[in-house]
Design brief:
alpha/beta, Rossmann fold, four-stranded antiparallel beta sheet
Length: about 240
């Protein structure tokens, strides 16, 4: 589609002789939330890691904003605007909350004032992080660490935010808050690609969705339409 900010064609990833992902096509439309859902082991995280340049691709092409970025290394993808929040948060536990956020802006070259302004924006978006600003990240709760991981990624000023399982291990009320924040930053224009095991939440927030089974895309459509899809209900929603 003409407004695709990031598109993937024929993506395949192998682990040795095992095909983890095979011949995936997908596109992320600018300013929208797209989700990739599926069971454990379906290849969701593998897809994100390949898009981020963190694991090699066996085949396929990735286009971002009209440019072929298939072979770009991770740090250049981040500088270009493709930023991932890893599964498990990966916060730097021996650094403070503030230091973690500041590291998110490491690749930027737009001056201290712009970075300071964005830091205050993160504290406004996540007031709990402001309260814990000078505390060690390792002392945060799971939900607070997820906020910190998202905030750190936003400090890089991404154009596409790749999110891997943001609800993992969190209490339902915390998950609701995380998804509210995702809707808020998307409303500000950020394109989001969400990999998520909480299929119901993901399909509610996503304007378009892909269902992955055994490394292949088996369904694609509007998120809320797939909520009513019998195959999705039976496999993922207990219908």
């Amino acid at each position: 589609m003409s407004d695709a900010l990031l598109s993937v064609s024929g993506l395949s990833v192998n682990y040795g002789h095992i095909e983890a992902v095979r011949d995936i096509d997908l596109s992320l439309q600018a300013g929208r939330v797209t989700t990739l859902v599926g069971a454990n082991g379906a290849g969701k995280s593998t897809t994100l890691l390949a898009l981020s340049g963190l694991i090699p691709k066996a085949a396929g092409r990735v286009m971002f904003d009209g440019h072929d970025v298939t072979a770009l290394p991770p740090h250049k993808l981040v500088a270009a605007g493709v930023v991932q929040v890893a599964e498990g948060r990966a916060t730097l536990t021996t650094l403070t909350v503030r230091e973690n956020l500041e590291l998110g802006a490491y690749t930027r070259r737009d001056g201290a004032a712009a970075r300071a302004s964005d830091l205050e924006r993160m504290f406004a978006l996540f007031p709990r992080l402001k309260e814990r600003e000078n505390g060690l990240a390792g002392n945060l709760s799971g939900g607070e660490q997820q906020m910190l991981a998202i905030g750190r990624a936003l400090m890089a000023r991404p154009r596409v935010l790749l999110l891997d399982e943001p609800s993992m291990g969190l209490a339902p009320i915390v998950v609701q808050g995380i998804f509210r924040t995702l809707r808020e930053i998307n409303a500000q224009g950020l394109t989001i690609f969400l990999v998520e095991q909480n299929v119901r939440q993901a399909l509610k927030i996503a304007e378009q969705a892909y269902v992955l089974e055994n490394g292949r895309v088996v369904l694609h459509g509007r998120g809320r339409d797939l909520l009513d899809e019998p195959r999705v209900q039976e496999a993922y929603l207990g219908g």
